[in-house]
Amino acid sequence: MLELRGITKRYGERLALDDVNFSVRDGRLTGFVGGNGAGKTTTMRIVLGLLSRDGGEVLMDGKPLTTQARQGFGYMPEERGLYPKMKVLEQIVYLARLHGFSKEDAAAKATPLLEDLGLGERLTDTVESLSLGNQQRAQIAAALVHDPAVLILDEPFSGLDPIAVETVVSVLQQRAAAGASVLFSSHQLDVVERLCDDLVIIAGGTVRAAGSRDELRSEYSSNRWELVGSDAGWLRGQPGVSVIEFEGGRAVFEADAASAQQVLRTAVDRGAVTSFTPQRPSLAQIFTEVIQ
């Protein structure tokens, strides 16, 4: 498990990171979200040893993270860093060999990985000839080819079309299922919500919320409920109830737990109830609430 404790970083008088604490657990996908300048890339670069920190510590399995341990990490920066004149397979094989694989083993790892990422027909094309989306897939392959125990990906879905996103998501889920710890940042909150097991929200260099996706959705849920039945128009006059949405037999309303239970009893007395459920907030709603 990768763990950050009390990480701080200053640029002159500006405090870029202020007491940042969170964990990236083995076998789980952790989404790292925040606006531009929130501190995501700075945090990732400190974990990787590319930036120094002014305070705090980075731990791996409870011990200070060493340079040797970092060599086994996989990192995909937001900026593309592949050699444009090299062929795709040649490039990924070369990077695998830098991690100590023989030429044969490197090719044996690189080829199926590129195929899984949808680049099987582009193995002999130069990197510069690829579309930006396919260059992004190649960049992801570069981060994965040496089977890292920890993956750190900065905006891995940038420039990808929906089909490519699904392809990359599948590959990352496979790596997590095999035990890797995966930390990825993204501005695409719908993808993060669907993909991540755990979530870290950062704003102004401070972690505003962290925990499992379901824990955070429960923690930030409001007293909002959905009722679906034969008729819901009567809700408008119900004491303690504020109707948010109404369409035919479906209504979304806000009420405390006692008032909501009274609504349910009344609805059952009045006719058939198809469903009655609490409404959990989306990641976008939680994000908006915690950064204000």
CATH class of the largest domain: Alpha Beta
Content-based structural category: alpha/beta
Shape designation: elongated
Unreliable stretches (pLDDT < 50, length at least 5) are: none
Helix-strand pattern, N to C?
EEEHEEHEHHHEHEHEEHEEEHEH
SSE topology sketch:
Elements: E1 2-11, E2 14-24, E3 29-33, H1 40-47, E4 55-60, E5 63-64, H2 67-70, E6 74-76, H3 88-98, H4 103-116, H5 132-144, E7 150-154, H6 162-177, E8 181-185, H7 189-195, E9 198-203, E10 206-212, H8 213-219, E11 224-229, E12 242-247, E13 250-254, H9 257-270, E14 273-278, H10 283-291
Parallel strand pairs: 3-8, 3-9, 6-7, 7-8
Antiparallel strand pairs: 1-2, 1-4, 4-5, 9-10, 11-13, 11-14, 12-13
Helix pairs in contact: 3-4
Description:
This protein is of the alpha/beta class and about 290 residues long. It folds into three domains: about 1-75 and about 150-215, P-loop containing nucleotide triphosphate hydrolases (Rossmann fold, 3-Layer(aba) Sandwich), CATH 3.40.50; about 80-145; about 220-290, 2-Layer Sandwich (Alpha-Beta Plaits). It has ten helices and 14 strands. It has helices at about 40-45, 65-70, 90-100, 105-115, 130-145, 160-175, 190-195, 215-220, 255-270, 285-290; strands at about 1-10, 15-25, 30-35, 55-60, 65, 75, 150-155, 180-185, 200-205, 205-210, 225-230, 240-245, 250-255, 275-280. The strands form three sheets. Strands 6-7-8-3-9-10 form a six-stranded mixed beta sheet, with helices on both faces. A four-stranded antiparallel beta sheet has the order 2-1-4-5, with helices on one face. The protein has a four-stranded antiparallel beta sheet with strand order 12-13-11-14, with helices on one face. Strand 4 and strand 5 (about 65) form a beta hairpin. Helix 3 (about 90-100) packs across helix 4. The chain is elongated.
